[in-house]
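Revision sheet: C-alpha cells.
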Amino acid sequence: MKLKKIVEFLDNYLDIDAVTDMSLNGLQFGDMDAEIDSAVLAVDASLELFEKAGRGNKLLVVHHGLFWGSSFAITGIHYERFKKLFDNELSLYAAHLPLDLHAVIGHNARIAAELGLTDILPFGDYKGTKIGFKGMLAEPLKMKEFKDVLGGLFGDYQLLQFGKEEIRNIGVVSGGAASLIPDAIKEGLDLYITGEASHSMYHFVKEARLNVVFGGHYNTEKFGILKLGDLLEKEFGLKSEFIDIPTGF
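Predicted:
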C-alpha cells in the first residue's frame, strides 16, 4: 500500500488541521511513494522505538512525534534518530491533539467507553477546543468500588480523594492536563481523570473537594494509539504491532 494513500486517510479521519497544536501532526518523515506493508504503533517517538521497529516498509504511528513548534538542527540526538529512520527505511506519522479529542478512537473517548459512561459530551477547554469528554456512570459507584475499575484500566494510579464518596459524573482529559482541573470544578464533576500529577494543584483540589485520578501520562495515552492500529488493519489490511515503552510517568 502506498504511504500517500495511508497518510491521506489518516489526515482526513483524524481531521489533523481542525485544532491548533504545537505538534506537527501528520507525516513527519517518509517518502510518499514508499510501499507500506505493516504499521508499528507507540506512544512516543524515540531512538529506542526506531531500533525496536526493525527495518523496512513500516509506518510508525505515534502520539508524541519529533517536531514541536520550533526548528532545530539535525545534530546529536536528533541526528541519531533521523539516521535510524532513514537507514531502516521507516516512515513516521504523529497525531497529538487530534488523537486526544477524536470522538471515536481518541484516548479520552476510549477511556470514557471503557468506563461505560453515558450522555457523553466534549469537556476541557484547550485554547478554544474541547479536548476531552465528560459523562455519567449508568449507576453511581462508591469510590472504594471505583478504585478496582481504575486499577483494571490504568494499573498504577494516584488518587486525590477529597470529594464525594459516591461517583457518577466523570470528566476525562488524558496526558498532562492537570491545568484543566478548574474546568472539572466549574462543571461540578464528581471525579476528574487525567495523566500527570501536579504539585501546584494539590491544595486547589483539596479546598474544592474534588476527586482527581492521575492515571499516568503514558498509560492514559495508549488507548487511542491501540485503536489506530486496529483501524489500519481494517482499512488497509496492514499487520500492526504496538511497541510498549512505558516511561513511568
